[in-house]
């Protein structure tokens, strides 16, 4: 096992409460003495000295956006790791962003941040779990978030209706649903459970819902990669959740999601017609075109945070890779809110909320 993997396993054991804080510190010192040799690191990152374009290249956000994001993610001015290392909130966010942006090795980041890879591992995982634990609710109980209200729901439905050319009131589709497999290394055990015969790879399965305003409003997972989209939908309880929590559309009809033919037909979920007549075939053609929005959403996560798409660096049971992908989706949502648009919201001409409104 490589050095980086040992530090990741140690941190994962502590986060799952398999070792106490005292045991963690003792083991960390042992590993650091074993692996971290005398080495001169560069200066710590100074965000003010970075040009904005360079900042966007490295972290996917401008300097001002990083400061706004640090504040609204409730990252304190000073944070302390379980091994005693201290860092600033914005610095920890930058380390996490750089880790997710590209499939870097931790040793590749030492010169950028002026810290040893053991400390970089602690910082990136600590900030990742802070975001996951405090803001993961935004992708779970979306109907009760302040930004998601009946006006937003109806605006999204109207935007889909305009783009599809289908009459409003007949079509009340406000978002699109699909599953995705995030490939990972072959695990040491339970290999068959995590193997997707369709993709011919091991991985974790997620279910996502993208609204017409460009935001992921729901993400369910991770589940073993062998699960079918219909089974994931059933396990998510999303149908019952929407029935109980979403307001009715004008005329008393249900607001609906649109998915591909892998999904079952429900009052809150529609799909293309099977064996369609000419009118139904036209409906299928139009809706399949706009349904590509959910594919764009998954693609944007992969493009912005390529670490989550590099399976050789994602090791099940050794890293919190489920949290990595959820946090990457949340950060893509935050970037959409800060920029005021993305490819999906531009396509539907339906703007997202501001960052403060989204994260409150």
Concise description?
The protein has 360 residues and is of the alpha/beta class. The protein is built from 15 helices and eight strands.
Give a description of the structure.
The chain is of the alpha/beta class and 360 residues long. Helices cover 47% and strands 12% of the residues. The protein contains 15 helices and eight strands. The strands form two sheets. Strands 3, 4, 5, 6, 7 and 8 form a six-stranded mixed sheet that branches. A hairpin with a 4-residue loop joins strand 4 and strand 5. Helix 1 (3-15) runs antiparallel to helix 2 (21-35) and helix 1 packs parallel to helix 7. The protein is globular, with a radius of gyration of 22 Å. 41% of the residues are buried.
Pick out the low-confidence regions: none
> What distance lies between the first and last C-alpha atoms, to the nearest angstrom?
41 Å
Number of helices: 15
User: What's the quaternary structure here?
Assistant: single chain
- Main beta sheet: strand number and arrangement? 6 strands, mixed
Strand-residue proportion? 5-15%
Backbone CA Rg: 22 Å
Spell the H/E element sequence.
Answer: HHHHEEHHHHEEEEHHEEHHHHH
Work out the number of β strands: 8
Mean pLDDT: 90
Helical proportion? 40-55%
